[in-house]
Amino acid sequence: MAGMKSKSTFLTILVAVMIAVVPRATAQDGSIEFVARATPSGGLEEPVRGFPFYLLSKSFEEIGKEADAEDPKPEMNAFIDKLDSNSYSSELKGWMKKNQFVTLAGEDFIRKLRPADVLDIPEFFSAYMNRNAGDQSADFPKSKVKASDKVKNPTKYAKATADYTETIRRYIEQHPQSVDGIDLNLAEIDPGPKWNALLGRRTPEIHRRALDLAQSKYLVARTESNLQGQGFLRGVPPGNYWISTLDVAADVGDARPRWDVPVTVQPGKTEYVALSNVNSVQPSHTRTTK
């Protein structure tokens, strides 16, 4: 009889513990409620209706970086080494490697040029002279080097050439704008477009990989916004998350917002998030580099 009472008491305690524990375990989960609205230019704020939103355990931007790291970029120095030596001097290849820059056009290229670069790299010097020497209205230095002295008087020829080179160097220092436009004379040998095309072929694969990772490895939940632009995510374990559109733009007039917004879920609490133009982001992992 005592044994039965003891057993009954044990079962009573066990049931009480189970009843107490289960609600507590359930209460540990939290939830997220969000509303997504976008404002087109010159318009009123509108809800983003029927649009898919993803709850991720890692930001989509960081997922993109992970996908990028898994597929190493083409090696620039190897690309430079493969350039035809008949079209590219060793000096030019050395400059491209030193600067890790292969685009011979645009403002970024011009800003990288120093007087020594223009003088020491045959392609740059030729382009600079073609750009400036033919302008009769300018005060560009005139050469006193005589081609005939190269054979008749090599010493005189060498001195005149060195003097003229020094004059050109001083002119570039005093007139840095004289370098502007030399890239027009480098267009035929500019390897930049080939390099960008090489990177461009890689970009879609990186983006596809990022989408796959987001929807498999890092996906916590998925929902769609209702007619009011609201979305609800229930039973979310406590932790740090991101509400993301996976780099897909929500079209509202001419507004194209994308979201990758962090949110922290507390045990047993509901987190409220407002998505708008203000906290929208632009995709970064699909951009090509120089």
Question: What does this 3D model show about the protein?
Answer:
The structure is a single chain. By secondary structure, the protein is α+β, with helices and mostly antiparallel strands. The protein has 2 domains: about 30-70 and about 200-275, Immunoglobulin-like; about 85-190, no CATH class. Strands 1, 2, 5 and 8 form a 4-stranded mixed sheet that branches. Strands 4-3-6-7 form a 4-stranded antiparallel sheet. α2 (about 60-70) packs across α10 (about 190-215). β1 (about 30-40) and β2 form a beta hairpin. The longest helix is centred in the N-terminal third of the chain and has 26 residues, at about 1-25. Mean pLDDT is about 85; it is low at about 20-25 and about 285-290. The N and C termini lie far apart (about 85 Å). The protein contains 10 helices and 8 strands. The protein has helices spanning about 1-25, 60-70, 75-80, 90-100, 105-110, 115-120, 120-130, 150, 155-175, 190-215; strands at about 30-40, 45, 50-55, 220-225, 230-235, 240-245, 260-265, 270-275.
CATH fold label of the largest domain: Immunoglobulin-like
CATH homology superfamily name of the largest domain = Immunoglobulins
Query: What are the low-pLDDT stretches, counting only 5+ consecutive residues below 50?
Result: 19-26, 285-290
- Which percent range describes the beta-strand content? 15-25%
Radius of gyration: 33 Å
Q: What would CATH call the class of the largest domain?
A: Mainly Beta
**Structural class label:** alpha+beta
Distance between the termini: 87 Å
CATH architectural group of the largest domain: Sandwich
Mean of all residue-level pLDDT scores: 87
